[in-house]
Write a structure and sequence with these properties.
Blueprint lengths: L11 H12 L5 E5 L3 E6 L8 E8 L3 H9 L1 H7 L3 E11 L2 E8 L8 E11 L6 E7 L1 E2 L9 E2 L1 E13 L2 E11 L5 H30 L25 E2 L3 H6 L15
Length: 261
């Protein structure tokens, strides 16, 4: 499996690892449970932030959820957390490097990430897998007005349960940098379930939206549609975790009553 900062073409073994990891039941603590959504956490030694796991039953086809996760144009429409994203380069027909930034309420600075994404659709009414991790690309250095976060590993497994329903598995360990404990806990217990539900609602509206917005453009399905340049391996730099953390602004002292609402 990938090391932090490593860039390579994904293998079948990588995708098999993600499928197994998303379904592992051992060691998780249940933090939040609703009718169709469960949120779990787990501690490991990679960073102070817990591993987050969400499992949700969706009333939409697996292919629809897969397209919603992949369609960056649609993400601009339904996910108000997203500030912007940009394609940097292709690595293969099912992997690329992208930049994206996430809005945070003031006085926090927005967070941004540079990640290698990998994806695989096993076929109609079969599993779909997407995962990413942070890398260091020369054309996207850290910005002074944002905090560069670290995605140790973020993974999605979409498993069909019928032609019109699926189960969404999401596992992530990220270090968004310099945040107080209260906002991390709030994300786990409140924002996590809300985001999972919001994505479900986005799935239910996707087909109607897509018919009016580049309906035939799906480069995650048809890689020949992509106009993004292929990777220049000279642009891939060593990922220094400690240096990235040192550049993070310390916002741990911000209290909840200081937020702009």
């Amino acid at each position: 499996m990938y090391k932090l900062g490593e860039v390579k073409i994904p293998s079948d073994e990588d995708f098999d690892f993600i499928r197994e990891m998303c379904q592992q039941e051992e060691g998780w603590t249940l933090e939040n449970s609703k009718k169709d959504v469960k949120i779990y956490t787990k501690v490991n030694d990679k960073c102070p932030f817990k591993v987050l796991r969400a499992i949700a039953d969706y009333k939409c086809p697996a292919k629809c959820l897969y397209d919603v996760v992949q369609d960056q144009e649609y993400c601009n429409y339904w996910d108000e957390r997203k500030e912007k994203s940009a394609d940097i380069c292709q690595i293969s027909c099912n992997s690329d490097i992208i930049y994206y930034s996430i809005k945070f309420p003031k006085p926090f600075r927005n967070r941004d990430f540079v990640i290698q994404r990998c994806w695989k659709d096993y076929g109609e009414n079969r599993d779909k897998v997407i995962f990413n991790h942070s890398v260091n690309h020369a054309k996207c250095p850290a910005k002074s007005d944002r905090v560069r976060g670290i995605s140790y590993l973020t993974a999605t497994l979409i498993r069909p349960t019928s032609p019109k329903t699926c189960t969404f598995y999401f596992v992530s360990q990220s270090d968004p940098g310099g945040l107080p404990a209260w906002i991390v806990n709030l994300t786990t217990k409140l924002y996590g379930p809300k985001f999972v539900d919001k994505m479900h609602q986005a799935c239910l509206k996707y087909d109607k939206w897509k018919k009016k917005h580049n309906p035939d453009f799906m480069p995650w399905v048809y890689p020949e549609q992509s106009k993004v340049p292929y990777i220049d391996w000279n642009d891939i730099k060593q990922f220094d975790t400690e240096q990235t953390k040192e550049s993070m602004r310390d916002e741990t002292k911000i209290e909840e009553n200081q937020l702009d609402t």
